Amino acid sequence: MNILPHIKDGPLAAYLALRDRDEIQEDPLQTAAVEKLQNLHNSLKNYQPVTQIGGFLSRFGFGRRKPVAPPRGLYIFGPAGRGKSMLMDLFFDGTDVPNKRRIHFHEFMIEVHDTIHAWRQSPDKQKNEVDPLPHIARVMARKSTLLCFDEFHVANIADAMILGRLFEEFLEAGVVVIATSNFAPDDLYMNGLQRGRFLPFIDLIKRRLDLLELASPTDYRQARLSRMQVYHSPLNADAHRALDLAFARLTDGARTEAEALTVKGRTIGVPKSARGVAFFEFKDLCQQALGAEDYIAVGNKFHTIVLSGIPKMNKEMRNEAKRFMNLIDVLYEKKVNLVASADAMPEKLYATGTHAFEFQRTVSRLMEMQSPEYIDLPHGTANR
Predict the structure, then answer these.
(1) How many whole angstroms separate alpha carbon 37 and alpha carbon 2?
(2) Domain end among 153, 178, 213
(3) Residue 24 and residue 150 in contact, taking contact as beta carbons nearer than 8 Å
(4) CA of 207: how far to CAs of 38, 168, 171, 232, in Å?
(5) What does the pLDDT read at residue 67?
(6) Structural domains of the chain, count
(7) Angle 44-46-47 (CA atoms, 0-180°, nearest 5)?
(8) pLDDT value at 127 more than 70
(9) Is residue 234 domain-shared with residue 184, that is, in the same domain?
(10) Residue 271, domain extent
C-alpha cells in the first residue's frame, strides 16, 4: 500500500485514500474507529509529557511548565481480522510525536522481564532497592510519549501484577497508551489464577482509557484467505510470486520486520512478519534443531504462516520430515492458517522413509487446512 501522500494528515485521510483505491472495503465500524483515532491524532499535536519538559535548568525551577492533562488513550478490542492492527498502524505512522513506540505486547513483556533480570544482576543498584518496577517504569515513561501495544493479552499472574504497576506509572507520567486486543477489558485473564488481584488493573483501563469495540460481522483476514489459493505446487517462479502476493495482501502491505522468538534460551528467527502473519522458508523451521515447544511459540504468536519451499523428502531427510510433521500438527491444533509452496502435492511430499506411514496424518491435515471450513475457524480454537 502506498499511503505516504496522505499519512501525515492523520489516519482518517489515509484510510479514505485506501478505500478510494479499493484496497480496503469501507466498514462503518472501522470508519467510526478511525475518526476516534483522528481526534487523538489532532490532540497529540504539540503535546509533551511533563517528564520530558525542562532539562537541567528545570531542576532549579527555571523552564518548568504547568502539567498539561494528557489526551486520553484508547483500548480497541474485538474479534480477530476486523482491522484493529491496520487502523493502529495508520494512526502510528501518521502521528508526528517524538519518542513514539509501537510494539507487540508479547515482545514488550519479554523486554520487561529481561530488564528486571538485568536490574537484579546489576552491581550499580542501590542496596536498599528491592523493587525494580518503579525505576523501570519511570525509565520507559521518559523514553515514550506514545506507546502503542498490539495484541494486548494477559497469560499469567506474574504478568498481570507487573502490568498494573507499570501502567499506573505510565499514565501518571502522561504517556498516551493505545492498545489493540481480542479481549474486552472485563474478559482479560478470565479464569486466571488469583484473578482478583488483577481486577484493579482492569478498572484502571476502564477509567483512564477510552474503550472502542470493533466488532464488524466480517473477518477480513479470513475473507481474503477464502478467496486465494493457499497451496502452490510445483516450486517455480509462479509459486514464489503467489506467496509474496499472499503475504502482501494478508498484511495490507504493512511494513515488515524481522524478529526473534525465545523459547527456553533458544532463538527462533522470523525472517519477516506483520499483523500476525509470518513468512518462513522451509529451512527456517524444519532444517533447524527445533521441536514442538518452538512450534507452539510460533503458533501462539501468529495466526497465519506463509511457508515457502517445502521439498519432496526422501528417507535421508527423516529428521526434516519429522519436524515438518510436528510443525503441521501444532499449526493444525492451534488453527493457524497456512499458505505454502511445495515441490509436490501433499501425498507425494514424503512417500517413502522412516515416517512415511505417520506422514499420512500430515497429508490429511494439509488437505483440510486448505478448506473453507478450516480457514473460517478462529485462531487458537483448540485451546479455548
Answers:
(1) 20
(2) 213
(3) no
(4) 21, 11, 11, 49
(5) 57
(6) 2
(7) 55
(8) no
(9) no
(10) 220-383
